Amino acid sequence: MYAFPKLTARDPRPVKGERIYAIGDVHGRYDLMIQLLERIINHFPTLEPKPSQLTVLLLGNLIDHGPYGAHCVELAKALAEEARATTLLGLHEHLLLESLDGKGEAQEAWLAMGGMATLKSYGIGAPKLSEDPFDFADRLEDGIPDDHIAFLRSLDASYSSGSYFFAHAGVKPGVSIAKQSRKALFSVGEEFTQSDRWHGQIVVHGHSTVDYVEVHENRIAIDTGAHKTGKLTALCLQDTHIQAFST
After folding, report:
1. How many domains does the chain have?
2. Helices in the chain by DSSP H: which ranges?
3. Three-state SS for 93?
4. In sequence order, what are the residues at sequence separation of 6 or more whose Cβ sits closer than 8 angstroms to the Cβ of residue 74?
5. Which residues pair with 19 in a beta bridge?
6. How many Cβ atoms sit within 10 Å of the Cβ of residue 225?
């Protein structure tokens, strides 16, 4: 468990009365997802005061690399249907959706970035030699449940509360939060992580793997490489309280 002092520079906090648990990149580790959600349940009564609003945010990249992508999507969908958690669009979900649309370059990129594990989790065979992208897309659509596809297509790319802004990858520096492109929110890289610019809010993000939660004045990075390290991390924010814990 990692506890951090209050960020005094701008005295950041979510909307009054809201407690947020933001969860980093799951990447097919359903086992860790379950463990971390149980830790959140156990942590909830230990922090006072009790919030009037509870928000659990999955910051995208539910799928790929790890073996249980289909299970992760099913659980995230069920939690959304029960209004118990919100999932943001990650780069890997975007590439899967582009693959479903028959875009060959996206299919190549997705499979090269761990998508084979997700295929296996849905019981879908690997692309055949010289298989047409639209034929592969048809097999994807046949193998992935319709409600999973609809859920992934429904995902928003960001969430905002008080001093904090949440997105899978971050934001493009020099562009106001209100004018960020959807693509930047799930795919921006070092341009964001190497920038010291103030973005108008503190950006909580995954996507860029860190050994431990990194707290900067303009951003907080919480992707601790769960599929490789076995360490899936949640960040708890309420009023000026900030705390992180991992599996």
Report:
1. 1
2. 30-43, 69-81, 91-100, 104-110, 116-121, 133-143, 146-153, 182-187, 190-193, 226-229
3. helix
4. 148
5. 54, 238
6. 17
The residue behind tokens 């849905």 is 122
Range of the domain at 242: 2-246
The string of pLDDT tens digits covering residues 151-161 is 999 999 999 99
Residue that the structure tokens 């349940």 belong to: 41
Distance between the two ends of the chain, CA-based, in angstroms? 9
Task: Look up the CATH number of the domain holding residue 222.
Answer: 3.60.21.10
- Cα–Cα distance for residue pair 109/205, rounded to 1 Å: 22
For 188, the 3-state DSSP assignment is: coil
Give this prediction's pTM. Answer: 0.94
Condensed to tens digits (0 to 9), the pLDDT of residues 42-79 reads: 999 999 999 999 999 999 999 999 999 999 999 999 99
Give the residue among 62, 180, 76 at the shortest CA–CA distance from 115.
Answer: 62
- Give the Å distances, CA to CA, from 172 to 5, 169, 180: 27, 10, 7
Mean pLDDT for all residues in the chain: 95
CA 122 to chain centre: 20
Bigger pLDDT: 212 vs 5: 212
Which tokens hold the place of 66?
């790890």
Q: In sequence order, which residues have a C-beta less than 8 Å from that of residue 11 and are 6 or more positions away?
A: 163, 240
DSSP string, 14-75: -STTEEEEEE---TT-HHHHHHHHHHHHHHGGGSSSPPSEEEEEE-S--SSSSS-HHHHHHH
Burial of 8 from C-beta contacts in 10 A (0-12 / 13-18 / 19+): exposed
Angle of the 69-81 helix axis to the 30-43 helix axis, nearest 10? 40
DSSP 8-state class, residue 220: E
